[in-house]
Design a protein that fits this description.
single chain, 477 residues, alpha/beta, two-stranded parallel sheet, 16 strands, 38% helix, binds 6-O-phosphono-beta-D-glucopyranose
């Protein structure tokens, strides 16, 4: 038993993204997007970094997003399982290319709009609030080929049209919005975060910071439109979170840990506080980087800040200035980090740190003084189906229980948290590796890394555990 309850109306649920769940990649007029060109296997990582040789799926490669877990056709069954667990919220993303197949079309694709209408209706029928991310790592491919994606200012206007289309269409159904998933990811995986493809001789970092500025202005315009069109909605930013610890108490390590955190914070600093912080201006100057801005950009950023801070938390990071320590690097969710000797790692090398969750919640709330929304957290692990068809995922329950306990502690610390949507409540394909066997779900999906399987859904042990958490509003962890 925990010694407190979670706030009344706390939004318990799960989170998925279009390209990792839907499939139906060309169904009813959808255009190709960046994620449709990310195969599983050795070529994937290089592509995520922005080194792409072809703008078409290649013969002989397997692209997991093309079918994913077929949520496109099975969403009713999946939503009824979420409802059975008692979900109050489902975070999902809209695929831009279902709505505007090329990204710059004159008119939206009605079939794409209708698809999400049907999903929202199904959710609302079960009293599940949709929490919608407008861009979760996918950009219509045509925009990459024609304009160079977010390196080009043109994308701001196209994203604005897209966002206004969504707000007008779904204003009665969706009250929680987010603009860009893990906006800081564009500095680490530029193709994933911003559809950036680099050519020989490109000044990559310059392009990344310019693209980031374009996303920030687009995000401010979306906030403005959302507030005008749906005054009772809340719209947030989304950070790939996780506090960075200094490896020792040497002041150089403290400084480095602070700098590492600020590298990520700067984007949501702009989204939440409305201006570029001094440390970024200094960084740009010292690295001879210039962000081209147009008249009016600064006012837009200042006047249209987000209502809440959405973030993902998978683990903490550590920073050191000692060359010997720097030899031990772990992968962590894309952010290379020094190995923390006090923590264990997941099977994929991501540090597991429940206490860091409380620390991260406090750090974000201290910094922004706006409600937080935990929109991703969970353990990617390999599951085994027994001969009786059961999945005993006690390791997942253990991970989640410890993290929820620390989130409860953060709430006791005074942090305002709107809800918690764990990542991949049903197994979906991994973003970094494209694998199916890296599973986060309460619901097992029978499909393997090669795309084979019946797609049958099976409730895991954690399904029943999470159902009880929600039923008791976290009183029984
Ligand atoms: C976050 C992303 O970075 O981490 C998700 O927003 C992603 O899209 C999640 O799936 C977990 O990462 P992975 O690589 O295990 O799928």
């Amino acid at each position: 038993m925990t010694k407190y309850r979670f706030p009344e109306g706390f939004l318990w649920g799960g989170a998925i993204a279009a390209h990792q769940a839907e499939g139906g990649y060309l169904e009813k007029g959808k255009g190709l997007t960046t994620v449709d060109l990310m195969p599983i296997g050795p070529k994937r990582w290089n592509i995520l970094l922005g080194n792409l040789s072809s703008f078409k799926p290649e013969e002989g490669e397997f692209y997991p997003s093309h079918e994913a877990i077929d949520f496109y056709h099975r969403y009713k069954e999946d939503i009824s399982l979420f409802a059975e667990m008692g979900f109050k919220a489902l975070r999902l993303s809209i695929s831009w290319a279902r709505i505007f197949p090329n990204g710059d079309d004159e008119q939206p694709n009605e079939a794409g709009l209708q698809f999400y209408d049907d999903i929202f209706d199904e959710l609302l029928k079960h009293d599940i609030q949709p929490v919608v991310t407008m861009a979760h790592f996918d950009v219509p491919l045509h925009l990459v080929e024609k304009y160079g994606s977010w390196r080009n200012r043109k994308l701001i206007e196209l994203f604005e049209t897209y966002s206004i289309t969504l707000f007008n269409r779904y204003k009665d159904k969706v009250k929680y919005w987010m603009t860009f998933n893990e906006i800081n990811m564009l500095l680490h995986m530029p193709f994933v975060g911003a559809g950036l493809v680099f050519q020989e001789g490109d000044n990559k970092i310059q392009i990344q910071y310019q693209a980031a500025h374009h996303q920030l202005v687009a995000s401010a315009l979306a906030v403005k439109a959302c507030h005008e069109i749906i005054p009772d909605a809340r719209i947030g930013c989304m950070l790939a979170g996780g506090a960075t610890y200094p490896y020792t108490c040497h002041p150089d390590d403290i400084q480095k840990a602070m700098d590492k955190d600020r590298e990520s914070f700067f984007l949501i600093d702009v989204q939440s506080r409305g201006e570029y912080p001094g440390f970024v201006k200094r960084f740009l100057k010292e690295n001879n980087l210039t962000i081209e801005m147009e008249a009016g950009d600064k006012e837009l950023l200042k006047n249209h800040t987000v209502d809440y801070i959405g973030f993902s938390y998978y683990g903490s990071r550590a920073a050191s200035t000692d060359p010997e320590v720097l030899k031990q690097i772990t992968s962590g969710n894309v952010f290379a980090s020094v190995e923390n000797p006090y923590l264990e790692n997941s099977e994929w090398g991501w540090p597991i740190d429940a206490k860091g969750f409380r620390i991260t919640c406090n750090q974000l709330y201290d910094r922004y003084q706006k409600p937080l929304f935990v929109v991703e957290n969970g353990l990617g692990a390999m599951d085994v189906v027994t001969s009786e068809g059961k999945i005993h995922d006690d390791y997942r329950i253990d991970y989640l229980r410890k993290h929820l306990t620390e989130m409860g502690e953060a709430i006791q610390d005074g942090v305002e948290i709107l809800g918690y949507t764990s990542w991949g409540p049903i197994d979906i394909i991994s973003n970094t590796t494209g694998e199916m066997k890296k599973r986060y779900g309460y619901i097992y999906v029978d499909k393997d890394n090669e795309g084979k399987g019946t797609l049958k859904r099976i409730k895991k042990k954690s399904f029943h555990w999470y159902k009880n958490i929600i039923a008791t509003n976290g009183a029984v962890l």
